[in-house]
UniProtKB/TrEMBL annotation, chain A:
It comes from the Bacteria. One of its GO terms (cellular component) is protein-DNA complex. PANTHER family: DNA-BINDING DUAL MASTER TRANSCRIPTIONAL REGULATOR RPAA, REGULATOR OF RPOS. Keywords: DNA-binding, Phosphoprotein, Transcription, Transcription regulation, Two-component regulatory system. It comes from Tessaracoccus flavescens. The modification 4-aspartylphosphate is found at residue 58. Residues 131-230 form the OmpR/PhoB-type domain. GO terms for biological process: positive regulation of DNA-templated transcription. GO terms for molecular function: phosphorelay response regulator activity; transcription cis-regulatory region binding. NCBIfam families: MtrAB_MtrA. Pfam families: Response_reg, Trans_reg_C. SMART domains: REC, Trans_reg_C. Transmembrane segments: none annotated. This is DNA-binding response regulator MtrA.
Length: 233, 496
């Protein structure tokens, strides 16, 4: 997408040689470009050098562990990060998500599952929303240019956070269940881990709310889920 | 202990006092009898002499008797005299003639000699109570040889006073002794019991899991030995438990590590199998079929691995709830929809019956969905193509879901065993859906984590019902469930 060939480039950070090779075979078969990095220490350099469109990141790495690699990458880029994790314990997954990972795939996974996750993260929301300019609370969203502004200040959101905000803004009166958001933003059809939604709503709030303790943009509807804040015109 | 000591010493005291008093009384009374008899003999001899004395010869017999009586009494107030005169009796002042017992009178009147018998001395003053005493009787022989019976009454006034004083002393001493004994018993038992009590308390604390607890050892006696043995036992126990704990932790960690370590190669194998599976059209039929078999078995292996890991997490106590206020009905609907295609494939109809509207509870939706998934797939698998009924109801404190099938069921006594790991109702039955054999164990653990209940009901040939009851929040203690354990459609089923 970013380069001339139209092929998305994926950085695979995993220390297991067999799995890395297998992953690259599958990804190439599906038409992706792949780069491999076997350790946490060199992952950031590799990322800077290759500028991939998506990062597949194993949480357990020699050298720097996956969570801190994830935090480093997220610090400089909004690139989609999908964690590969052998541990699906709450603490590990949440640590990864809070470090900025967009999604996670617990090992062992099926190739199709992983590919579906990758495609969802690489998908760019087109102009299907109809109106190009949306408002949510005191924010303005420009859909085609992927820009969110409060007044004249640009807010820097990752593509995932942008999509989450956009999903809410597109149907301002609708109350979204966590499952509905999982479907809409992450592309999950039924199997659901609502921790994804919870963590990313927190991350989004930290960026867009004036006071994250008293959210006005992403409102919690107790027992159901979330809805968009009233537009302040 | 103290009470029995007290009552026993009291009993001993009472008995000893009674014996002492009885002996003393008997002694005093016997001595009085002897002294009374001696004295009576003296006075009688004197009176007999006086009566024969020529001085009295001139006087009327009655007169002389009277004077004799006065003489006798005037000597001392030790005794009283009753003389039976021919017409009347002469009685010392202050007493009544009835004080002489009739038996004594008869014997004295009938025969010669002196007789003594116990009696009651009755006083003329009715305010003075009668006193026990001795009555001595004999006959005076008058000058003309006529007989005048004379009786000497010896009241035991002073002796009674002495005895009374003695009784007071005995009772007083008894009370003091009992108190002293009680105190001594208390002190002694205290010395013996306190270390024993300390030991028993230490044993209780040990039993409640405080394995660092030890008993203090004093001296070298038996109690010290007991304390030492107890401490040794506690030490051994602690060491053994530590060993077992370490072993158990090691084992759990091993299961967890194995499961984790298997996951990465498992992923590679799965992906490789997928790649080959996708291109199986290019393979010869036997290879293609082999790839299919491999793929399904890898999936099954994968499920088992996931369940094994989940169980190891429960065993390690590492399972954590992520609670959220959730409409349980939505979870049920979602799981029913997710399993509908499998149900249709197996010809099972899924019927959802929601009895109440507000079914929100604080639950970990991932875990609750897993329980529901397990129960529903189980019911579909064992449902024998008959409809599976899923009922949801709630009350103020709990939300309950019951999954009822009308399939093979299981024997009633297996109702708790169905939650055992790798348990199968009928080992010969072939699995259709697969599953690791850990599903219900995991569901049970998930329910427990919510402080909820998961109960099973089943009868052979009449199907089964699994009921999940969840408190509205895990802080609530469950006391009842909105749904019965036994399915309502089986109430009149007749237990055979």
């Amino acid at each position: 997408m970013s380069d001339g060939t139209g092929k998305a480039k994926i950085l695979v950070v995993d220390d297991d040689a067999a799995l890395s090779e297998m992953l690259q075979i599958v990804l190439r078969q599906e038409g992706f470009d792949t780069v491999h990095c076997p350790s946490g220490d060199s992952a950031l350099d590799e990322f800077r050098a290759e500028r991939p469109d998506l990062v597949l990141l194993d949480l357990m790495l020699p050298g720097r562990d996956g969570v801190s690699v994830c935090r480093d990458i997220r610090f400089e880029s909004g690139v989609p990060i999908i964690m590969l994790t052998a541990k699906s314990d709450t603490a590990d997954v949440v640590a990864g998500l809070e470090a900025g990972a967009d999604d996670y795939v617990p090992k062992p996974f099926k190739a199709k599952e992983l590919l579906a996750r990758i495609r969802t993260r690489l998908r760019r929301t087109g102009a299907d929303a109809g109106a190009d300019l949306l408002t949510i609370g005191d924010l303005t969203i420009s859909v085609s240019s992927h820009v969110v502004k409060r007044g004249n200040t640009m807010l820097s959101l990752t593509p995932l956070e942008f999509e989450l905000l956009l999903a809410l803004a597109k149907r301002p009166t609708h109350v979204f269940t966590r499952e509905a958001l999982l479907d809409e933003v992450w592309g999950y059809r039924n199997a659901a881990d609502t921790r994804l939604v919870n963590v990313h709503v927190q991350r989004l709030r930290a960026k867009v709310e004036k006071d994250p303790e008293h959210p006005e943009i992403v409102i919690t509807v107790r027992g159901i889920g979330y809805r968009a804040g009233e537009s302040a015109e | 202990m103290l009470f029995s000591t007290l009552s026993l010493s009291m009993l001993v005291m009472v008995l000893a006092g009674a014996v002492l008093l009885q002996q003393a009384t008997a002694g005093v009374v016997a001595a009085k009898r002897d002294s009374s008899l001696n004295e009576a003999v003296g006075v009688f001899t004197f009176m007999q002499e006086q009566l024969r004395n020529p001085e009295f010869r001139g006087l009327a017999v009655l007169e002389s008797l009277n004077r004799l009586a006065d003489l006798a009494v005037a000597q001392q107030s030790q005794y009283r005299v009753v003389i039976q005169a021919p017409s009347s009796s002469l009685v010392s002042a202050g007493i009544l003639a009835e004080s002489v017992p009739a038996a004594l009178r008869e014997r004295v009147e009938e025969s010669q000699g002196m007789f003594i018998t116990p009696t009651e001395v009755v006083y003329t003053d009715p305010a003075v109570a009668p006193e026990p005493g001795w009555a001595v009787g004999a006959s005076l022989i008058g000058p003309a040889g006529e007989r005048y019976p004379v009786y000497y009454l010896f009241p035991m006034t002073t002796e009674l006073q002495t005895l009374r004083a003695l009784r007071g002393a005995v009772i007083g001493a008894g009370i003091v002794l009992v108190i002293a004994l009680t105190l001594i018993a208390y002190l002694v038992t205290g010395q013996v019991i306190r270390p024993v009590r300390r030991a028993s308390q230490a044993a209780l604390r040990l039993a409640s899991g405080r394995l660092d607890e030890r008993v203090r050892v004093h001296g070298t006696d038996d109690l010290a030995l007991l304390a030492k043995s107890m401490n040794r036992m506690a030490g051994q126990l602690q060491q053994r438990i530590r060993e077992l704990e370490t072993l158990s932790t090691l084992q759990q960690r091993f299961v967890s590590d194995v499961s984790h370590e298997l996951r990465t190669p498992m992923t590679t194998i799965k992906m490789a199998a997928d790649v080959i599976h996708d291109s199986r059209g290019k393979l010869d039929p036997m290879s293609a079929r082999s790839v299919e078999l491999m793929s399904t078995e890898i999936d099954r292996f994968d499920d088992m691995l996931a369940d094994l890991l989940e169980i190891s997490r429960f065993d390690a106590g590492a399972a954590v709830l992520s609670l959220q206020e959730t409409e349980v009905a939505a979870l049920v609907t979602a799981e029913i929809e997710a399993n509908r295609s499998m149900a249709e494939q197996l010809g099972v109809q899924l019927v959802f019956n929601k009895l109440t509207d507000d079914n929100t509870a604080h639950v970990d939706d991932r875990r609750i969905r897993r329980i529901l998934r397990n129960l529903i797939t189980n019911a579909i698998e064992h449902g024998e193509r008959r409809p599976v009924l899923i009922t949801l109801a709630s009350d103020d404190e709990a939300v309950a879901v019951a999954v009822r099938d009308h399939g093979v069921g299981f024997e009633a006594e297996n109702a708790s065993r169905v939650f055992d790991r790798f348990w199968r109702a009928d080992p010969s039955r072939t699995r259709i859906v697969g599953g690791s054999g850990l599903g219900l164990s995991i569901s049970m653990e998930d329910a427990r984590l919510h402080r909820g209940w998961l109960t099973a009901w089943g009868r052979s040939g009449r199907g089964a019902q699994f009921r999940l009851t969840l408190p509205r929040t895990p802080d609530d203690e469950l006391t009842s469930s909105p749904l019965p354990v036994i399915p309502t459609d089986d109430l009149g089923g007749g237990d055979t």
